[in-house]
Write a structure and sequence with these properties.
Largest sheet: 5 strands, mixed
Shape: elongated
Structural class: alpha/beta
Strand order of the largest sheet: 3-2-1-4-5
Order of helices and strands: HEHEHEHEEHH
Strand content: 15-25%
Number of helices: 6
Length: 202
């Protein structure tokens, strides 16, 4: 009898730990980052060379952020549908003093393969600062005349592909439609968090 009670207690504790783990994971996946506060008009300090006559889509990415694989994946699908109607720039953070290849991760390679996307290195996060972006995956759409149309993320949760308001809103704006949202939550790692960077500094 005692053995059965002990086994039941162990099983109960195990199930409780699983439930707590699942709840923690779900909370993490649905906890958004700092949405930033991008300028209402295209910042004159930016070194990005925009294409005349086209809206500009800018995404800021921390190259070591695994969550941002979903953002790059959504961007690839978005560009397939918006090809030729928007010029897109993906900027990868490169802190000062880090090795030359630190930012050229698989995320960089994935973004570089997307037609219509220009991949740039953001030395010491200067462009992220100019655009007031704080979270990896932060995406902004500016009109051809430099007006901010959209700011936010293009995933519905951390690290997950699937239907989301950011993706739909950008497509709608590019097509001159009326989006449901002009600001959405951003799910990703902090752009200026030293944690992910320190592990890859050597």
């Amino acid at each position: 009898m005692k053995k059965k009670v002990v086994l039941a207690l162990i099983a109960g504790l195990w199930l409780l730990l699983i439930a707590v783990g699942v709840r923690t994971l779900m909370r993490y996946e649905h906890t958004s980052g700092d949405p930033g506060n991008p300028p209402a008009t295209w910042p004159s300090q930016s070194q990005i060379q925009r294409s005349a006559g086209l809206p500009a889509l800018v995404m800021l990415v921390h190259p070591q952020c695994a969550c941002s694989r979903a953002s790059i994946g959504e961007l690839e699908m978005l560009m397939t549908r918006a090809q030729g109607r928007v010029k897109t720039y993906v900027l990868f953070l490169k802190p000062v003093g880090f090795p030359g290849s630190w930012e050229t991760t698989d995320l960089w390679d994935s973004a570089a393969r997307i037609p219509g996307v220009t991949v740039l290195r953001d030395d010491d996060g200067k462009e992220a600062t100019i655009f007031h972006a704080a979270t990896s995956g932060q995406t902004m759409l500016y009109s051809a005349d430099g007006q901010l149309l959209f700011s936010g993320g293009i995933t519905g949760s951390r690290g997950h592909l699937g239907d989301n308001d950011g993706y739909d809103s950008i497509l709608s704006l590019i097509g001159q439609g009326a989006p449901e949202e002009t600001r959405t939550k951003v799910f990703g790692c902090p752009l200026h968090d030293s944690g992910p960077r320190s592990k890859h500094q050597e």
